[in-house]
Amino acid sequence: MWKGIIDHYREFLPVSDRTPIVTLNEGNTPLIFGKNISSRLDGKFKLFFKFEGANPTGSFKDRGMTLAISKALEEGSKAVICASTGNTSAAAAAFAAQAGMKCMVLIPNGSIALGKLAQALIHGTIVLAVDGSFDDALRVVKEVTQKYPLTLVNSINPYRLEGQKTAAFEICDSLEGRAPDFHFIPVGNAGNISAYWQGYSEYFKLKKSDRLPRMMGFQAAGAAPIVEGHVIEKPETIATAIRIGNPANWQKALSTKEESKGLIDKVTDQEILEAYQILAHDEGIFCEPASATSLAGFLKLHHQNFFEDRKKEETLITLTLTGHGLKDPDRAIKTAGEPHVIKPRMEEVIKWM
Amino acid sequence: MWKGIIDHYREFLPVSDRTPIVTLNEGNTPLIFGKNISSRLDGKFKLFFKFEGANPTGSFKDRGMTLAISKALEEGSKAVICASTGNTSAAAAAFAAQAGMKCMVLIPNGSIALGKLAQALIHGTIVLAVDGSFDDALRVVKEVTQKYPLTLVNSINPYRLEGQKTAAFEICDSLEGRAPDFHFIPVGNAGNISAYWQGYSEYFKLKKSDRLPRMMGFQAAGAAPIVEGHVIEKPETIATAIRIGNPANWQKALSTKEESKGLIDKVTDQEILEAYQILAHDEGIFCEPASATSLAGFLKLHHQNFFEDRKKEETLITLTLTGHGLKDPDRAIKTAGEPHVIKPRMEEVIKWM
Fold first, then answer.
1. What is the β-pairing status of strands B340-342 and A102-108?
2. From the CA atom positions of chain A, what is the Rg in Å?
3. Burial letters for A21-32: b for 16+ Cβ neighbours within 10 Å, e otherwise?
4. Which of A56, A151, A208, A264 is the most exposed place for a label (fewest CB within 10 A)?
5. Mean pLDDT of chain A
6. Which of A131, A329, A352 sits opposite B115 (nearest CB)?
């Protein structure tokens, strides 16, 4: 019986017999073979999507949160706090509820997706909508935790990235020890790319995988501080989950890029939305817009002939889809249009066939 | 590597080597121990929630749809059609997209949850919003499939229930062969309760489980035709997924009730919303309102001392949570209220601590 990532990967995580495990049976998410997209690429590439939307709160954040909340409980903390573009607050709210801890989340007012707002609210969390950006919210949260005994559960909390690295373990396990050649991943607050790298590196050292992938991070063009090399004061992108101008894990992401011989690049909102629709139309996968950044990045590089030197080898690509499309229903409807209204008669249906 | 329910439970399903498998790696969903609710019930009950919201399209419908679409493809069908309160259309749209088949869905206009509408639209399906109820939509769809060569993928398609029975297999596997004493489940179109019963029965016959559970089905009070014993012309409930007045699998549900010595009862919208909030507040589980019908049913019977004769035994209860809370974000926000808006300053946060 799958009992969550701490139970399954205990030996790789900073827990002991004294750690109370707070879990929603997160992890164990599907690695979906992108059959249709792969077959259009002349058989040279095998694309696998790590669909993190299948986690209990609908995003990869559950992996880090089970560990952060379990450790906070072990250390006697009574309350947790975080800033969030939506996915972190959803996970914090759910795991804190399960642990019986108080929880406070700060979100940028008016700019998180509807589903994520619903998640923050439904678990009984105190939800504060800050007149400002995510970066403002994170700054305030840091100030609060320096003065008051709340545990910070943003990804500067080291347990978060320790939990998130298990997604890389699962990929290698799913592929029976064959690590990917390239791993594509969206970059927002920039913690997840280094968490995956840590996971791949630990597994490789233990000979549980056969190679190290190159880590390919992608930011949204309007919120690409790492690519531009400076803080973005007013980040703008439809990919709200990665609308961050001053990433907390900036330096870690740069180290990951260098160590893995990878890159950190950017894609436009239009490229993101195209990839978002390709996933839905061609593979039946509905992810949130920010998630599609990974496929948009791959397609951009593919069009640029980036992979030309790999002509003769089959290349195994994994792409993280960070969150479920249900997180942001408005974007889907805006993208796809409204339904056609008809009377309940067969003739009316036939007109549309 | 988990490759979906057909791959994993192939020997129990009507597939052959010629069946092309259309899968999104559905199934393998978490069975979450309801630690906090169970501990409040004096140690007499162990409640486990089968969280079907962790399926790729966020509901249990994926289990039946992988089989229905795979078989339709095997049989040479080019297009599928269904009526839906939302979850079936989401699954049909996604699996048809993966299969490269045309898909048409009929939904009751204005009364499906926002997330489900987004799902139907994003996969490139033809979405027709019928001025009428789900029952009207199903009637029209049946007429269309009698005249035109589209495959009907509502649960009157026998492959749907065959796929859905795998949830019962997974529960027995998760509990290492210990089947539950009671299984609680929402009843709408009434197919799932008989699918679970079929699954439990097949496993028991093969000695893969140690007992047969009593199947406890619950309808919403405003849409309870099976309980009332007659068709409901205008079904009304906030649990939109089970807002059905003339269930397609009515007789099967009654047989299941009798064979399993179970029952089919009803709960009010208020009881459903209470259970919905208990799950979110106490266990950190966010399901759609209709899903909470199973817990509402258990709590109703518990208050009525239904389980009194089991005083001395520990009773193992499983409850199906059919779909993710993200399917219906509006209901969550309506239930939980709006966030507090603040300026990005520490003093403002401290006021709310």
1. unpaired
2. 20
3. bbbbbbbbbbbb
4. A208
5. 96
6. A329
List the single residue in A25, A337, A349 with the smallest CB-CB distance to B32: A25
Q: Helices A269-278 and A293-303: crossing angle, nearest 10°?
A: 100
pLDDT confidence of B43, banded at 50, 70, 90? confident
Per-residue pLDDT, averaged over B234-251, amounts to 95
pLDDT at B338 over 80: yes
Residue written as token pair 């280094």: A194
- Give which of A77, A123, A174, A327 to mutate to test B binding, by max B Cβ within 10 Å: A123
Q: Do B286 and A119 touch (CB under 8 A)?
A: yes
Cβ distance B281 to A137 less than 8 Å, yes or no, reads no
- A147 vs B57: CB contact, 8 Å cut-off? no
Is A344 close to B136, i.e. CB distance below 8 A?
A: yes
Task: Please identify among residues 12-71 of chain B the ones whose CB lies closer than 8 Å to any CB of chain A.
Answer: 24-26, 28, 30-32, 35-36, 51, 53-58
CB < 8 Å to A51, chain B: 24-25, 56
pLDDT tens profile B185-194: 999 999 999 9
Asked whether the beta carbons of residue B118 and residue A329 sit closer than 8 angstroms, the reply is yes
Q: What is the pLDDT of residue A236?
A: 96
CB distance A74 to A206 below 8 Å: no
pLDDT at A186: 98
Would the CB atoms of A118 and B332 count as touching at under 8 Å?
A: yes
